[in-house]
Design brief:
Layout (H helix, E strand, L loop, with lengths): L2 H11 L16 E3 L5 E3 L9 E9 L2 E11 L5 E7 L4 E7 L4 E6 L6 H14 L3 E3 L2 E4 L3 E8 L2 E8 L5 E8 L2 E12 L2 E9 L4 E9 L5
Antiparallel strand pairs: 1-9, 2-8, 3-4, 3-15, 4-5, 5-6, 6-7, 9-10, 10-11, 11-12, 12-13, 13-14, 14-15
Length: 213
């Protein structure tokens, strides 16, 4: 990745927020009996490598590469990203409560970048969600999971029972919208990660699919 692109990316990340977060509320849903104590995001639960084409738009900067996610054990994943030319950009191990940086390209070795990636992937790879309330609309069963000042809204398609969306909020403000397209419970064919308080969008597209059912 050219050095000027990395520098431009860093400058974009430290801009003052252009848009303030709005309080998140569900619309056009009805409460239903809470029959599940927990729900799970199983999209990264296989022991095989998850390999994606990665596209990141950060303000006016576009960065692309290859992203690999591998489950190391029940709590920890390893995440590595290379440029389109095969140069390693970053390599880290992450769980819900821990983060270990194995390698980062010197131009990316900035606290704001590391914290940004740490937070995004901790939310993305979170597996278990205790259920506080349940709702539904015409298309989805929606589970609300509350953890301290954080809340997660998980949308499961009524017909396929596949997880389609997670809305992550903090202090009642919407932070990240994760939208999945999948044919299996353990593998998302594509992912769109949209920040609500930064002009940051990350898209992942399948390169290799896990063979497990």
């Amino acid at each position: 990745m050219p050095r000027f692109l990395l520098q431009s990316l860093l400058y974009s990340l430290i801009l003052i927020l252009a848009v303030s977060c709005k309080t998140y509320t569900l619309a056009d849903v009805k409460p239903v009996e809470n029959t599940a104590q927990t729900v799970e995001n199983l999209y990264f639960s296989s022991g095989e490598d998850y390999v994606y084409k990665c596209q990141m738009d950060i303000y006016k900067n576009h960065v692309s590469g290859i992203l690999i996610i591998k489950k190391l054990n029940e709590k920890t994943h390893r995440v590595a990203m290379t440029s389109d030319f095969g140069n390693k950009l970053i390599d880290f191990e992450i769980s819900e409560n821990d983060f270990k940086l194995n390698y980062v390209l010197p131009d990316l070795d900035k606290k704001i970048v590391i914290n940004f990636l740490k937070n995004d992937f901790q939310q993305l790879l979170k597996k278990n969600y205790p259920v506080s309330e349940s709702f539904e609309n015409d298309h989805s069963r929606i589970y609300l999971s509350k953890v301290d000042n954080k809340a997660y809204y998980l949308f499961f398609n009524k017909n396929s029972n596949l997880l389609q969306q997670i809305i992550y909020t903090k202090n009642r403000k919407e932070k990240i919208d994760f939208t999945f397209e999948a044919k299996k419970h353990i593998f998302s064919d594509s992912l769109n990660l949209q920040h609500k308080d930064f002009k940051i969008n990350i898209k992942l597209f399948q390169i290799t699919e896990t063979g497990e059912n």
